[in-house]
Amino acid sequence: MTPARAVDEYLRHVAVERGLSAHTVAAYRRDLGGYLVWLQRHGVEDIAAVTAEQVSAFIAERAAAEPRPASSSLARLQSSVRGMHRFILREGIVDDEPTQRLRPPKLPQRLPKALTIDEVQRLLDAPDAESPAGIRDRALLELLYATGARVSEAVALDIDDVTHGDILRVRGKGNKERIVPLGSYARQAIDVYLVRVRPGLATRGRATPKLFLGMRGAPLSRQSAWLVIQGAAERAHLTAHVSPHTLRHSFATHLLQGGADVRVVQELLGHASVATTQIYTHVTADTLRDVYVTSHPRAR
Is 248 noted as a catalytic residue in this protein? Predict the structure, then answer.
């Protein structure tokens, strides 16, 4: 099988069978496109002929490129190449897997940035409570903080997903659905938006079941949602960098600070592994350490 066909088969697998997002599939396509160019330049016409030395040489060449790629980009590149080779091995297309000894680069551990409860309140209060855009923005921000949903998950919500009282259905990575409680503040903000704003926005565009709409009636995009968060952060005079993931990080951190079990937080965030969730326990541990140092008479 040619390398190009092997890549096509793998991309079809991750898109259709594994249900990965279009964004993730596009990233795999870019990574594997570069891999195909490299294999072609080195005369590889059969994917079964690829050796471990060639894979290592490709990764080493990319790692030494200028400008130097970030460790996260290099790790994703390795994951893309390894995933494709493992797939064709499982499918019986090849008899050997040349990426077995490939070691991913060590990524620097970055603790997620979380806002304080007071900062979150300022962020949620920032939108104009009387304008249509402000009412929609408040509903979006309240939902993000109340549920820990990713921005991409929030803009993908349909009206039916929030019509189950205090329960929200969220479709996460791999199109996996999870159930998340919806607090009373978020429920009220969404209800106000659905009654006072969304019907008017819906008349400006084509019919769509999406919950959040732009000012022209089209479904709110992820980029537009990011601008909503950035705009609210500026109006709230938050000096810390506020990213689309900030409210998700704050949601997890505040739950753990309040005594929630890490396994429960894992379910609420939709993490496949508890190891991913445990990074938030470091944030909580830092907070506990600070309180201890400032409060205990023999801490210093």
Answer: yes
